[in-house]
Each structure stands twice: as structure tokens, then as C-alpha cells.
């Protein structure tokens, strides 16, 4: 099993609330997370009288924006400590149009990667290849399919005999139709790729 991955190390969460309703500004659109982050960083980088806070603000990186106005920021540990201290002393400045309701440490979000099989089901490979070729309007023949597979799956050498054995099975199962007219005749819940 793969080792867990830390997704949000060294992060702070800032819970923000708007000073006025978004509709009160003549139907102005709700600002996105990156815009709010830039406004927060700019507001604190302007504190020339507090060089530690200004320097810490310039080292911040945008980590994310959650619904309900939660801004996630990332920085080196020393810079995060400066932000914590500024919050405790009520010196941390909010982004324009907002007020900071709370600041807190975010425990690292842990992701456990799901391992994939090293094998791809052959039917899936052939169906995806034919679908991709149809999407780019390439006529699908055994030869063009073989060329497509060799280009996109270069490690496999036995494509030719595999294609011949599966070609008829796919058509018999009516997964693929010979023409677009025949495709319309087949009752199916989703579009069926076709080949020649």
C-alpha cells in the first residue's frame, strides 16, 4: 500500500465574513478565493511599521478557499507564527470588504493513495481507443486501430493478434456498429462508437 500523503502541511485557516451583502454593491459578484487571498496579502504587506508582518505576508501562498468564507494559506513556519502573533495582538488586517472572525491552525489533511492495477482491461483499451478515434473523426479499421494503439500504448507488442481476436467479439456483442445508420438502429442508453 502506498504511503499517506500530507496535502496541507503548515497551513492556517482564516474565517472571514463580508462587511456588506454582495447584492448591496449593485449586484457585484462574489470574489473568488485567489482575489480574497491577494487582498489579504496586500493589506498586511502594506504594514511598513511592522516589518515582520509585512515580510510574513509576502511569503504567504494560497492554499485554498472553502465555502462560507474560509481562506487557507500556507507559509514557512516562522511566517505563520508571525501571523498567529499578529492575530493575538489584533494587528492582523483583513482583506478589503471583509472582517476576520477567527484564525486557526489547520491539521494536515492526509490522503491515502489508492493503488492501481498495472493491467488495463483489454476491452476497455479497445473501446477507449475506438471512441477517441471517432471523436477525432478518424475512420476505424483494424490497421488504423493498430496504429493508434501502438502510438498510445507503445510498451505492448502483441496488438495485432489481440485486435483480430477481439474485433469480431466486439461487433457480435453489438458494442460497435459498422455504420452510423446501424448505430442509430441499435437501442442503447448511450452513444455507441462505430467502426468500418
TrEMBL record:
GO biological process, any: regulation of transcription by RNA polymerase II
InterPro entries, A to Z: Storkhead-box_WHD, STOX1/2
Stretches that traverse the bilayer: none
One CC-aspect GO term: nucleus
Coiled-coil zones: none
Every Winged helix Storkhead-box1 domain range: 111-155
UniProt-recorded Gene Ontology molecular function terms: RNA polymerase II transcription regulatory region sequence-specific DNA binding
Pfam families (alphabetical): WHD_Storkhead (PF10264)
PANTHER family assigned: STORKHEAD-BOX PROTEIN 1 (PTHR22437:SF1), WINGED HELIX DOMAIN-CONTAINING PROTEIN (PTHR22437)
Protein name listed in UniProt: Storkhead-box protein 1 isoform X3
Organism: Hipposideros armiger (Great Himalayan leaf-nosed bat)
Name of the gene: STOX1
Amino acid at each position: 500500500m502506498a504511503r499517506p500523503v500530507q496535502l496541507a502541511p503548515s497551513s492556517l485557516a482564516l474565517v472571514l465574513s463580508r462587511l456588506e451583502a454582495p447584492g448591496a454593491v449593485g449586484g457585484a459578484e462574489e470574489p473568488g478565493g485567489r482575489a480574497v487571498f491577494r487582498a489579504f496579502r496586500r493589506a498586511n504587506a502594506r504594514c511598513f511599521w511592522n516589518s515582520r508582518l509585512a515580510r510574513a505576508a509576502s511569503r504567504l501562498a494560497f492554499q485554498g478557499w472553502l465555502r462560507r468564507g474560509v481562506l487557507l494559506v500556507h507559509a514557512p513556519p516562522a511566517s505563520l507564527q508571525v501571523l498567529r502573533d499578529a492575530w493575538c495582538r489584533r494587528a492582523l488586517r483583513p482583506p478589503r470588504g471583509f472582517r476576520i472572525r477567527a484564525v486557526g491552525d489547520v491539521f494536515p489533511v492526509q490522503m491515502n493513495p489508492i493503488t492501481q492495477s498495472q493491467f488495463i482491461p483489454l476491452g476497455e483499451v479497445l473501446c477507449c481507443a475506438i471512441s477517441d478515434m471517432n471523436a477525432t473523426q478518424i475512420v476505424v479499421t483494424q490497421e488504423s486501430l493498430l496504429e493508434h494503439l501502438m502510438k498510445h500504448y507503445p510498451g505492448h507488442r502483441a496488438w495485432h493478434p489481440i485486435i483480430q481476436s477481439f474485433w469480431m467479439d466486439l461487433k457480435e456483442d453489438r458494442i460497435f456498429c459498422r455504420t452510423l445508420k446501424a448505430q442509430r438502429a441499435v437501442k442503447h442508453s448511450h452513444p455507441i462508437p462505430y467502426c468500418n
